[in-house]
Amino acid sequence: MTTGDTPAVVLVSGGLDSATVLAIARDRGYLCHGISFDYGQRHRFELDAAEAVCRAGGAASHRVLRIDPAPFSGSALTDGGEVPMGRSDEDIESGIPATYVPARNLVFLSMALGVAEGLGAVDLFIGVNAVDYSGYPDCRGEFVESFQRTANLATRVGVESDAVRVHAPLLDLTKAEVVRRGAALGVDYGLTNSCYAPGDRGQPCTMCDACRLRERGFREAGLEDPVRRRCS
Questions:
Q1: What's the whole-model pTM score?
Q2: Per-residue pLDDT tens for 188-225?
Q3: I need a labelling partner for 139 at 20 to 30 A (CA). Which of 11, 98, 155, 168 fits?
Q4: Residue 180 lies in a domain
Q5: Whole domain around residue 81: which residue ranges?
Q6: Is 61 within the bounds of a domain?
Q7: What are the phi and psi torsion angles at 32 (to 5°)?
Q8: Residue 107 burial by CB count (10 A; 0-12/13-18/19+): exposed, middle or buried?
Q9: Which of 174, 4, 163, 204 is nearest to 89 (CA)?
């Protein structure tokens, strides 16, 4: 537990996982600076959700960094075809999905690391989760550990003190465990947006992988999803 003035940079997408991670970082006593990314994603409602999550979650600041979307071509989340719909749990949990964005978390963490150095922060928080959805290469524990080692080789603070820490507190939790943890910390999940293909008012499609995993998480946690309730 920190004293409340130790800065940390928290990657906030606007979804369920990142909202929970922000709450965990705040609960651990960090002064949290939220960071989000505009990379040409189709589900742009998540940026509005990220702002709302940071405001409600007590972040000291929130900034959105724009990235040229050209390097991220070929993903269903940008310009690479249709978002998969109605897949079975078995299909969701096998293989690398069409919604994989090339090197996304590597790029995001690198930029967050630069922001952290500017703030004098050595702690980064990211909401990767490898239990329910292991298809993304950059959501694995090996990746997080590797990036932390690289961060300590590539930065002044790392060379001088080996102090950079990458926190991934949801890594080994099921989606239901994530939901229960966030609920216990008072996260307002009604502010979040997880859907890969939301409607024109941000309403969830209910059929993409993200919606199906979210639905399963709330169901197995024995809780009602406030977004589903509002949109039903």
A1: 0.94
A2: 999 999 999 988 888 899 999 999 999 999 999 999 99
A3: 155
A4: yes
A5: 6-231
A6: yes
A7: -95, 130
A8: middle
A9: 174
